Amino acid sequence: MYLSWNRPESSEYPKIWHTFTVSGEKYHIQDLPPSITEKALQFMKENSIDEPLAAAYKIYEDEVVFDQMEVQWRSVIEQKAVLVCFKEGSDEIVGINMNYVLSIYDHILMSPIAVIKKRLRNVYSMFERMYYGCIDRKYKLLCSLIKSNKNDKRCLGLLQLMTEDFDIDVDEVLVACGLCVAQKYRGRGIAVELLKTRKIFCEEFNIKLTINVFSSHIADACAEKAGFELLKTFSYDEIRKNYPHLKVPIQIESNSLTFRAMKINSMRELISDKPKSLALIKKLNK
What pTM value is reported for the model? Predict the structure, then answer.
């Protein structure tokens, strides 16, 4: 994944963006320090498997998908927009929001040859790990890869369904490819605070908007509390009925998908709900 936005070298990094207290315990949210990249990747792997769509489609059943996700997460981390929450006095990760900035220039500034080379490097890296890590179970790995690819495309289809009707008139937007809170810290409003901190980050770097698709009623409630405005919602029953090709599993532990945005300026100035082609949003689904 090529991301053209660069954090200004003059900006403080890593920076503490937000502090808060829950039940007498103090927490802070800061940039992810480079020194704990491997620890953060392991945290995401361990705590993202119960996300409703991933669990229902069984996307994380094998190491192949984890390898694919790791490639994406590493690319995102390089942009220095990922937020991590710590409890005061501890280096234990409480939660992570894998934020990154999408720009309308992401594919304009990169030459076709550079795009091809980047994609080939990512593919080679993924298959190299697949080969050395799973050399004794090749057939099983191939079947798993085919199945995972189909389910991954269905998940992307759901994201396209949620975002296809909106035109966003900004050059840059903050999005995320995962928000996870450690099991022992859930129910304390950590996710809400991580989402609130997105606005502070956007204000610092003059990013006009932050958006996301939320796949569970819990995540959606957190987004609403954090100040995200509802733009679109679909129940999973509606999707099963009207979009059968997406093969949405019955056993999803949630009721609906929602698409929300947090305005940094007036929402009416930034978004019009007309069915236009949106390069900026559609990059979310690639």
Answer: 0.81
